[in-house]
From TrEMBL:
GO terms for biological process: rRNA base methylation. Its main location: cytoplasm. It is found in: Cytoplasm. Keywords: Cytoplasm, Methyltransferase, rRNA processing, S-adenosyl-L-methionine, Transferase. One of its GO terms (molecular function) is rRNA (cytosine-N4-)-methyltransferase activity. This is Ribosomal RNA small subunit methyltransferase H. NCBIfam families: 16S rRNA (cytosine(1402)-N(4))-methyltransferase RsmH. The keyword Iron-sulfur does not apply. It comes from Candidatus Wildermuthbacteria bacterium GWA2_46_15.
């Protein structure tokens, strides 16, 4: 199971109360949502949005495994699952989904960005260089759209260099783009291991002092490009402020500096214009115990604001 990151902190900023409704825009396995639901019984609801249809199906499978009982308390496991409306969509359509579901009033919105442990370990979508899989990297699983393999095999060197530099903050972007373009002419690069091998071969042995796998930054860059992660975040934040109730909270957990900058700048701009109040002057990060128990939390940053 995916371990929800900064859970206590999210609950403290969202401050869910009985009967309040929340939107979880990157629903995943619903870890944060279930904790919110603990506090919102008997009638508080969650509108969950999740772009990965397999992830949605996994939630439904869990829901139907819970045994039916004659009295289902709203705070019991089944009661909590019943108070979730899960929609398979991209959070960039948040306002439309809220309207279609006639969902409200909304006391808070959470975006826990990125991918879950299941995506890395089991989804077979090519997110991890530790597994040999087709280089797809699409969260929505639609192979007919842009994939990481099509970027790697068809984009011009200058574009590859740009995304490696801009999205991956990779120092060796130009060297990597050149190597990929020369090798792909001999044989298409279609798997995670093919790409990871190429990268490993051209980087200096002491890359980043051995702290991260040499392919980490390129894989992140590809994922961001394929799923338009930065553009979607920029388009979603204003929609969140629109759908929130006055006084409603917005919490965003980011996992890289590009996402964090977008959230920080948006919160600052809205605060300057008197539309929201920043609740986290500095981003909240996990403590040593959380990082030890869940190493994937180490790059997480939480920022929160309230609609004025
Ligand atoms: C870090 S996980 C969320 C984990 C969740 N908070 C939990 O505790 O289980 C992020 C989830 O958001 C989904 N996601 C990422 N981008 C999305 C988008 N643009 N729209 C909707 N869902 C998205 C991913 O598929 C993934 O399941």
């Amino acid at each position: 199971m995916h371990v929800p990151v900064l859970l206590k902190e999210v609950i403290s900023y969202l401050d869910p109360q009985p009967n309040e409704n929340f939107v979880d825009g990157a629903f995943g396995e619903g870890g944060h949502s279930l904790a919110i639901l603990e506090n919102t019984s008997p009638a508080g609801k969650i509108l969950g949005i999740e772009t990965d249809k397999e992830m949605c199906a996994r939630w439904l499978a869990r829901k139907f495994q819970i045994p039916k009982s004659p009295s289902t308390p709203s705070s019991g496991p089944r009661g909590k699952f019943q108070r979730v409306i899960l929609v398979n969509d991209n959070f960039v359509n948040l306002k439309k989904v809220v309207k279609e579901k006639k969902f409200g009033p909304i006391s808070g919105v959470l975006l826990d960005l990125g991918i879950s442990s299941w995506h890395l370990e089991e989804s077979q979508k090519g997110f991890s260089f530790l597994r040999n899989e087709f280089l797809m990297m699409r969260l929505d699983g639609d192979k007919s759209k842009l994939t990481a393999a099509s970027i790697i095999n068809h984009w011009p060197a200058a574009e590859l260099e740009r995304i490696f530099r801009e999205y991956g903050e990779e120092r060796f972007a130009s060297k990597m783009a050149a190597a990929i373009c020369s090798l792909r002419n001999r044989k298409p690069i279609e798997t995670t291991w093919q790409l990871a091998e190429i990268i490993k071969r051209i980087l200096p042995p002491a890359y980043e002092g051995g702290r991260i796998h040499p392919a980490t930054r390129v894989f992140l860059a590809l994922r961001i490009a394929v799923n338009r992660e930065l553009e979607n975040l920029e388009r979603t934040l204003p929609q969140i402020l629109e759908v929130l109730n006055k006084g409603g909270k917005i919490c965003v957990i980011t996992f890289n500096s590009l996402e964090d900058r977008i959230v920080k700048n948006f919160f600052k701009e809205q605060a300057r214009e008197g539309r929201s109040k920043i609740l986290t002057p500095k981003p909240v990060t996990p403590g040593l115990v959380e990082i030890k128990n869940n190493p994937r939390s180490r790059s997480a940053k939480l920022r929160a604001a309230a609609k004025v």
